[in-house]
Amino acid sequence: MSNDILHEVLTEFLEVWLHNVLYICNIYPSQIFRSRYKYNLSVKQSTYPVLNDHIRSLVASLQPQLRLQAIQTLTLHVIQDLEVQESFSLRLSFPRYASLIR
Which of 14, 12, 9 is nearest to 71 (CA)? Predict the structure, then answer.
């Protein structure tokens, strides 16, 4: 599997992960999310274009570090009244062979 394919799958997964964390935490009204199937699972995805663009932009900003395999953990903090209410962490582990395909 080439690095391009690995990064495409990882990028897609990160977007799905972010949409679902936002849905689970009720950050946005549940009405803006729709169910869809991804990875043979039912997941939620926002239908709100501004939010979708923001999520895509966030994931795109991570791409240089993802390509260098320099990110080990992504953490999303849900903050309310300047206090962390919840944290969601995603640990990234790149296959050993990924560094051989450059």
Answer: 14
d(CA 88, CA 67): 22
What tokens does 75 get? 């953490």
CB 18 within 8 A of CB 59: yes
Round to whole Å and give the CA distance between 9 and 3: 10
Q: What is the pTM of this model?
A: 0.85
- Model confidence over 60-101: pLDDT tens digits? 999 999 888 889 999 999 999 999 999 999 998 877 655 544
Residues 6+ apart with CB under 8 A from 92: 10, 66, 71, 72, 73, 74
Distance CA 33, CA 36 (A): 10
